[in-house]
Backbone:
DNA sequence: CACCCGATTATCT
DNA sequence: GATAATCGGGTGT
């Protein structure tokens, strides 16, 4: 098995970690099944320098993991319907930070993902932040789990990413900080959102 | 307790 | 492309 990403990996600048998570493998154990996918799209969210971040105005009950728990999951509920899965990552000089996982290329347990999503079409299975959490069965129960341990949810090394395959753009679905180029995706991959 | 709104998605036209 | 769905968090009264 590929080596699991350790605490050090996540203890770096949020935007750098967002870039480096491309090509890694997200694994989720679901009803004794193993569901996984290759991370093909991410976005970085920081703290007081980032008006688009949950952590912008300081620590609250919801966003507390972003401040304290490097290498842990941060899952939140949005628009009354969807869960978004984030990885807490930041350097010591940042107060908070997390990487939103926006899309996966489905790998293991595809038939269970199709069942979870009520969606047969592979193309539409995990090509968005709310879609991939539904496919993997990620909900509020998966908030604040240590991703550096081989338990319910973790991330391991995956495929080699060529630097000229990485596209950098502004983030999606936010009304502020459009100038920040903190979204990354693999140009050659079909599962990128939108 | 009332109000506003969001790191989205599916389903229209 | 436009919009309804849907509900918990955050804020202020």
Residues:
């Amino acid at each position: 098995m590929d080596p699991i990403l350790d605490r050090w990996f996540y203890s770096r600048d949020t935007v750098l970690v967002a870039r480096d998570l491309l090509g890694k493998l997200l694994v989720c154990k679901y009803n004794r099944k193993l569901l996984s996918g290759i991370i093909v799209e991410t976005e970085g969210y920081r703290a007081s320098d980032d008006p688009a971040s949950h952590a912008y105005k300081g620590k609250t009950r919801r966003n507390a993991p972003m401040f304290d728990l490097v290498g842990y999951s941060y899952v939140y509920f949005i628009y009354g319907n969807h869960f978004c899965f984030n990885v807490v990552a930041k350097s010591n000089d940042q107060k908070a930070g997390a990487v939103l996982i926006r899309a996966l290329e489905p790998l293991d347990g595809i038939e269970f993902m199709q069942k979870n999503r009520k969606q047969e079409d592979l193309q539409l299975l995990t090509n968005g932040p709310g879609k991939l959490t539904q496919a993997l069965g990620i909900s509020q129960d998966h908030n604040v789990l240590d991703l550096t341990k081989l338990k319910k949810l973790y991330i391991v090394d995956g495929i080699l990413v060529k630097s000229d395959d990485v596209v950098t753009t502004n983030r999606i679905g936010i009304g502020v900080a459009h100038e920040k180029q903190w979204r990354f995706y693999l140009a050659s991959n079909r599962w990128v959102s939108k």
